[in-house]
Every structure is written in structure tokens, then in C-alpha cells.
Design a protein that fits this description.
Elements: E1 2-11, E2 14-24, E3 29-34, H1 40-48, E4 55-59, E5 66-68, H2 80-85, H3 89-103, H4 107-119, H5 125-135, H6 152-165, E6 170-174, H7 182-193, E7 198-202, H8 206-212, E8 215-220, E9 223-228, H9 231-264, H10 273-289, E10 313-322, E11 325-335, E12 340-344, H11 351-359, E13 366-371, E14 377-380, H12 382-386, H13 394-401, H14 407-415, H15 433-446, E15 451-455, H16 463-474, E16 479-483, H17 487-493, E17 496-501, E18 504-507, H18 512-525, H19 540-582, H20 593-629
Parallel strand pairs: 3-7, 3-8, 5-6, 6-7, 12-16, 12-17, 14-15, 15-16
Antiparallel strand pairs: 1-2, 1-4, 8-9, 10-11, 10-13, 17-18
Helix pairs in contact: 3-4, 5-6, 9-10, 13-14, 16-17, 19-20
Length: 630
């Protein structure tokens, strides 16, 4: 394939491409678009070797033949037919070799070159050239006329015919329809759909692009942006991207204010200076990484919670444990509004136990737990996933919590968690672990908590959802306690660290780098504590239903794949029959000229149809593989 890697291209003082990337695979049909002067024609000249890149690497397979449509109008005395035949360099070389062998009476070389002529289809070359000229609007009598007798527009058509005549692995066409009428344009579309090599077309004809190409390269802001589909698909995707960018700018500015407010809460605390610096660096990272998240499907904020003036929850002289085993003792811990705490400590030391005590789910072995009036608790752990009603949809889950909320308000809210359309109405039983985790978080956010207790909230979440959660937590104004192995989440959401170890809870004076050093030393000196194990609840009926749902999703894919394979076999048989007939020497006589034209036309159409079927088959296979992995 052809690859452009970090290409810089200048014309005079103007920079056309800067760090541009592009890959062109065999057989791909690509439309090249962009504003006038953006570098489309210069890209072609770069591929043709007429320009040299100012930076980066261009790789073109050594055995690839490149054909292109010349833009200059050449006034030559050769006939139109001979001009078009000149496009096949191998044909002309072989003709000269045959003439030389005949002149030398060298029968050995003559036989060799005649065989070569047959192998390259040279004896049908004139017919192919005539077909090209007919398709582009030339009459039979005009083919014998000299090129000089044609006007500029018709000479451009001859340049196009010559490019199409040239055997190639890459075909470059710059505005090929500019001088064509509708009939010639329709013919060219059909011809190009059957072209087996890689094709790059510069065109402003959207219908032409829609009917010929499967990808669009848009040269914009000195870069090459690749889109799947024809021009109409590109237009829609780009409009969506620009709309997202505008929305992202507004979102980004809000997030920036959130982080700045977060920094201001403690930047002057000497004991937290290192953490404050990390928040300031986060401002720059957020600016740099914004484009990577412009198309994230997730966006949500925690609503402003109810204000509470006293401590939300306090534990005094508390002992915690299970049965006869004590896990933590002498715990004094008070959560005030606005506190943001990260819990650190070895596995099994009691972090989850402490959070359960804060929720009231775990009975205290000793001591006191006090809650503020107006406490609204939001608690996330892996148990919340198991507590979801597998038969209910995300919409129904929220409707049960707030029956007076309108469906549209709930749908708008769920959209921020990427539950759009039918997915908001789908039963949870068919959801993946990540989808269930998102719904559990959505339920917590919906309840407007003023105290968030999060125990490994990022499990099952992908990078985009983790980023959205981190940003939402930065602007959350309630109290927060987090247990997480995601250090990025901790660094960017909490401003106090507490250590749970050796049966005690204590403030940790340091940052996560300090904790990493502490943990290494601890592992060397202390035998690891037993891991807190929580036996998952297995819903066998739900598991059977999920398996049945997966089978139901795969069945139609497998049926469509089977149907495509049958259709491909039929196309292959028809193509084989046509190619067998085309191999018959008698097909190239004058008497069979019309039949030959029809066979060549049918061969091109079948190859194009076969290519479309293969693309559909590959796409369905990818879908099936993805379904099998779920």
C-alpha cells in the first residue's frame, strides 16, 4: 500500500500539508476534496514524483504502476485512437520489439514477443481503446482524426481516455468530469466502479463521488482527514463533527472553570501544595487532550446537592469487623460538606469495610455513627450492578425513583450516559458489564447525593466514560470518598488522602507517588493481609437469558453471511464463464466485436458486484466476531 507519514509539503511560502498522514490500500476508491489551494493537486504531484516532500516519508510499492489524467492539452498530429493507445506503455514497447524482430528475421525473438503481446491482451488493445472513446462520446469516424482537430475540452477527454487505457495499480484523476456531458459521466462512473486498482479522484461532483468512491480524504488545516463512505456520508459526518466541536468548546470552558475552582479550594494549603500543582498541570492537559474527547458519547454533571451545615457522617471511637475478626479499631472520622477523600491501603486492610460503615450497611462492633439531617447518600460498589432489575430498562429504573419526572427529562439525562433511543428502553439483562456500571452511576447521579461513596467506580468503564466521570467529579460540590486503583481519577478528584493499614485509619501526608514508595516498603516488611472477599450473587435465570439473547443476535448475522456466500459463489461462476469465453481467440474477430463488447462490459459489472459483496461479507464477519467476543 501507499503510506504518507508525517508529510510536510510547501509551495513557495505557503504550507499545504503539515504532519499529514494517509494510507491507500490496494483496490480502495477514494475521493480527494478540499478548498481551492488546499493542496489536492499538489498531493497528486507528490505521488507522481513531480514534487518532493519537505518532511516526512512517502512509501509507494516499487511494482505499482501509476496512471494519471494529464491536465495540459497536447496538440499532436497522431490520431485520437493512436493517442489513446499510447497510454499502454507495455503495448507500445511490445509492438516495437515485434517490429524489430520482424526486421531482423529473428523468429525466436518474434515468437517470444508475440507470446508477450498475447499475455498483455495486446491484440484486443485497439478494441479497448475504441470502447473508451465511444464511452467518452467520440464517434467512430472521429477516432481517425488528429488530436489537433479537437477543441480543448475534447482533448481533455482524450487525456482521460489515455489514462484509463494505461494498466495501473493506482489511478489518479483530477476533475475527470469537468468536460463531460451526463452520458459520458454515467459511463465513466460505471467504468470506474469496475476498476480493480486503487483510485484517487479530485472532484467537485458530489453525485459522481457518491457513486464511485467508498472513502473521502478531506484536506483541511494542512492535514488529511479520512472519512468512510461517499460525499454525502462525509458531509453528514463532518457536520456532526463541527457541531460536536462547537458543543465541546462550551463544555471545555465549563470544565476549565470547574478545575480552576477545584484548585482554588486548597491551593494555598501548604500541606497540599504538591497536589495543587498537579491540578494546575491538569488545566494544561485538559486543553491539550480536548480533541481526543470531542466525540465522546458521555457528558453529565452532578446536580447541586442539598446543603447541610453539620457533619454529614461521623464515626467516633468505632471498631469494625466481621464475626470474631476485628478489621479496624479506634476509628475517628468526620465527613464535612465539600471534603474530597481518597482511601489508600493494602488489599484486605479495611477500605471497603470503612465505606460500608459510613453507609450504615455494616453494624458497628463498637462506637458511634452519626448522620446529619438531610443526608442524601450515593453509594457505588459492584453490588449495585447486581441490584439492578434485569427485567427493567434504564428509563424504568429512574421512573420508579421519581414517578413525577417526565419521560423526556429522563431520556435527556440518560443520553449523557450514552443511553439513547432504544437503548434507554432495553431490559438490563442484555447489557454488558460496562453498560450496567454506567446505569448504576446514572442512578446515583439522578438522586442528587450530597455524599458520594465510590468503591472502585471505574471497573467495567472504558476510557471515555472514565474521563467523563473524572470531569463530573471535579465539579461535584458535595462530599466525596473514593476507593480506586485508577490513579488518574484519584489525582484529579480528591484533595485529601487517608491510609487504611494495620487496623488503623490515619491521614496520609503525601501524594500518590509517596504512597507508591510506602506500598513497596510495606510489602517488603509486612505479610499481606487477607483479601476482603465478597461472594458474587449469580442470577442463573439472567445468565441463561443473556446467553439466549447473544444467540438471537448472532443468528441473523450468520444467515446474512450464508446468503452472501451463496451470491458470491454465483458471481464467481458467472465470471469464470465470461473469462473462459474471453480467452477464446475467435472472440477477437470483427464478426464477434459486438459480442466481445458485451462480454467485457458484463465482466466489469460482475467484478464490481463481486467487490461489493466481498466488502459486505467482511463487514458482517467483523460484526459476528464482535458478537462472539461479548
Amino acid at each position: 500500500m501507499i503510506t504518507l507519514t508525517a508529510i510536510d509539503l510547501r509551495r513557495g511560502a505557503k504550507v499545504l500539508l503539515e504532519g499529514a498522514q494517509l494510507a491507500v490500500h490496494p483496490g480502495q476508491h477514494i475521493g480527494v476534496i478540499g478548498a481551492n489551494g488546499s493542496g489536492k493537486s499538489s498531493l497528486f504531484k507528490l505521488l507522481l514524483g513531480e514534487l518532493t516532500a519537505d518532511g516526512g516519508d512517502l512509501s509507494i510499492p516499487a511494482d505499482w504502476r501509476i496512471a494519471h489524467m494529464a491536465q495540459e492539452v497536447r496538440a499532436v498530429s497522431r490520431s485520437a485512437l493512436e493517442f489513446v493507445l499510447d497510454g499502454d506503455a507495455a503495448l507500445r514497447d511490445t509492438e516495437r520489439a515485434i517490429a524489430a524482430a520482424e526486421a531482423a528475421n529473428d523468429n525466436y525473438q518474434l515468437a517470444r514477443w508475440v507470446e508477450t503481446m498475447d499475455s498483455i491482451g495486446g491484440y484486443a488493445a485497439e478494441h479497448r481503446a475504441e470502447q473508451l472513446l465511444h464511452g467518452l462520446g467520440f464517434q467512430q469516424a472521429e477516432m481517425a482524426l488528429p488530436v489537433t482537430s479537437f477543441s480543448g475540452g475534447w482533448r481533455i477527454r482524450l487525456n482521460l481516455a489515455q489514462a484509463l487505457m494505461s494498466p495501473s495499480e493506482l489511478l489518479l484523476l483530477d476533475e475527470p468530469t469537468n468536460h463531460l456531458d451526463l452520458d459520458a459521466t454515467l459511463w465513466l462512473e460505471q467504468w470506474l466502479r469496475g476498476y480493480q486498482g486503487a483510485l484517487l479522484i479530485i472532484s467537485h461532483d458530489r453525485d459522481f463521488l457518491d457513486n464511485v468512491v467508498k472513502r473521502i480524504v478531506h484536506i483541511e488545516q494542512r492535514a488529511c482527514h479520512l472519512y468512510s463512505g461517499g460525499y454525502s456520508s462525509f458531509e453528514r459526518l463532518r457536520a456532526e463533527r463541527l457541531a460536536l466541536q462547537r458543543a465541546s468548546y462550551v463544555k471545555q470552558q465549563q470544565r476549565r472553570r470547574d478545575v480552576e475552582a477545584f484548585v482554588e479550594r486548597f491551593r494555598y494549603k501548604a500541606s497540599k501544595a504538591r497536589q495543587a500543582q498537579s491540578r494546575l498541570k491538569e488545566l494544561q492537559r485538559m486543553q491539550d487532550s480536548a480533541p481526543a474527547h470531542v466525540d465522546s458519547p458521555f457528558y453529565f454533571n452532578f446536580p447541586e446537592p442539598q446543603k447541610v451545615t453539620s457533619a454529614l457522617v461521623s464515626l467516633s471511637e468505632v471498631t469494625l469487623g466481621y464475626a470474631e475478626k476485628t478489621v479496624l479499631q479506634a476509628v475517628d472520622f468526620e465527613l464535612q460538606a465539600g471534603m474530597r477523600v481518597g482511601l489508600l491501603g493494602p488489599n484486605g486492610a479495611g477500605k471497603s469495610t470503612l465505606i460500608k460503615a459510613l453507609t450504615g450497611a455494616l453494624e458497628l462492633s463498637a462506637g458511634y455513627r452519626t448522620c446529619a439531617e438531610g443526608l442524601q447518600l450515593g453509594y457505588f460498589s459492584q453490588h449495585q450492578l447486581q441490584a439492578l432489575d434485569l427485567e427493567a430498562s434504564p428509563l424504568l429504573h429512574l421512573q420508579r425513583l421519581t414517578p413525577r419526572a417526565t419521560e423526556q427529562v429522563i431520556r435527556d439525562f440518560l443520553g449523557g450516559f450514552d443511553f439513547h433511543g432504544d437503548s434507554a428502553l432495553t431490559a438490563v439483562a442484555s447489557f454488558s458489564g460496562g453498560e450496567k456500571a454506567r446505569l448504576a452511576l446514572a442512578i446515583i447521579v439522578w438522586l442528587k447525593p450530597n455524599l458520594l461513596l465510590l468503591d472502585e467506580p471505574t471497573n467495567h468503564l472504558d476510557l471515555e466514560m472514565r474521563h467523563a466521570l473524572t470531569m463530573a467529579l471535579q465539579s461535584y460540590s458535595g462530599a466525596l470518598v473514593v476507593i480506586s486503583h485508577d490513579r488518574h481519577l484519584l489525582r484529579n478528584t480528591v484533595d485529601e488522602l487517608y491510609l487504611v493499614a494495620d487496623g488503623r485509619l490515619a491521614s496520609f501526608d503525601g501524594d500518590l507517588t509517596d504512597y507508591e514508595r510506602w506500598a513497596k516498603q510495606y510489602r517488603r516488611e509486612v505479610k499481606p493481609a487477607a483479601v476482603e472477599v465478597e461472594t458474587p450473587v449469580v442470577d442463573r435465570r439472567a445468565a441463561r437469558q443473556q446467553a439466549a439473547d447473544r444467540r438471537a443476535q448472532r443468528a441473523p448475522l450468520m444467515r446474512r453471511i450464508k446468503a452472501l456466500e451463496t451470491e458470491l459463489e454465483s458471481a464467481e461462476r458467472q465470471l469464470s464463464q465470461i473469462q473462459t469465453r474471453l480467452a477464446e481467440p475467435g472472440m477477437y474477430s470483427d464478426q464477434e466485436r459486438e459480442q466481445l463488447r458485451l462480454l467485457v462490459r458484463d465482466e466489469g459489472q460482475l467484478k464490481g458486484h463481486q467487490s461489493q459483496l466481498e466488502e459486505q461479507w467482511l463487514a458482517l464477519q467483523e460484526q459476528l466476531e464482535a458478537a462472539l467476543e461479548d
